[in-house]
């Protein structure tokens, strides 16, 4: 193998780059299927991408010197990684490339062997045991979590979607639920094949058999009867938000733990992945992944508070409408939410600002919040109006947030963009919890206004899956190790 980093191809050498990407596609898939490796570029997964998408990701991944990330380097790295038969891990190619350059471009096989020594020859993956997952409820978030889990179904020893539990919706229930998984007006078609086994109440998606269980109450289900043991229940219904209500799940046979995909009430542990997921312990039977807004703003608030200190802040959320609102004016138990969601901006309350303190206690009592629901189906924005403990310029704050999105331990949660052209639909499908819009940042002395976009469905669902992996004991180690 070459001893130095391959020369970066000219920008117009498109065909040659595509040829390299075409060779990479099966290698990336094989590493994932056989070794549990997930490759990414600055947090953007390379799994299941087309050659054009792989080239595009490299095109916009820049080193500190402004050079384009070399797809040739990625090719050499992937081959060198495959040669050591690694165990399950998440590997960020862009960050490894930066470390490779900083190390003076050593022989790449030696470099990779040293960086991934702890997972060489399978590491701990030989003892990695998969975890059964059951989705209780199959609405917007439930179906997106299903899509994410199914995209990783080839990963032996990872999360395995085994069943969904729903109330029977009448004739053609199974066919209609399969159709909702197959087609989505916001997120597009399912990537793969879906068939229905009506005789056995199953949906077959990309070769994965998903049992559809009809039940009215959590305690009614006998999971071992379907071959499901020690599963994690993901409750997407929002019907129960406290420990008493959600504890009905653990009364069923075969249930190990419960994860709520909504803000919890009472003493439930609220977990924002990347912030306080390290507080999850074996004794935690029921936890909540908080709300989409809490997940979007907490990582950004944490890094700002750590660096500049937050004395006080107000969070205003401009949020897409949700399924609990009415299409046209009708009765609703909530204030204002009875008015048409598709015709009005609707002021409503949000508990996100208070919920931040549950994951980030140092901000307790320092934040207020409100929300405006707007006539868009997905992607929202949080406006952080902050009084800091010291003065800061727009350039300093933006440079800090951009670096946090690339190099901090929260790079899975925080993204950053500077473009005068982007609008909300450009963030559909983002896997990050929140995306800082650098051009919109405002500063004046110790006052700062930061705008954070977020896909309140898909980005949040990825945060839920990250918590789910932690609860299921199937999280992968990161390479290189995050710093800060």
Automatic annotation (TrEMBL):
Query: Which residues are in the Glyceraldehyde 3-phosphate dehydrogenase NAD(P) binding domain?
Result: 131-292
Q: Which UniProt keywords apply?
A: Oxidoreductase
According to the UniProt entry, its GO molecular function terms are: NAD binding; oxidoreductase activity, acting on the aldehyde or oxo group of donors, NAD or NADP as acceptor
Query: Is the keyword Oxidoreductase assigned to this protein?
Result: yes
Q: Is the Repeat keyword given for this protein?
A: no
The record's listing under CDD domains reads: GAPDH_I_C, GAPDH_I_N
NCBIfam families referenced in this protein's UniProt entry, alphabetically: PRK08289.1 (NF006139)
UniProt protein name? Unannotated protein
Q: Where does this protein come from, organism-wise?
A: freshwater metagenome
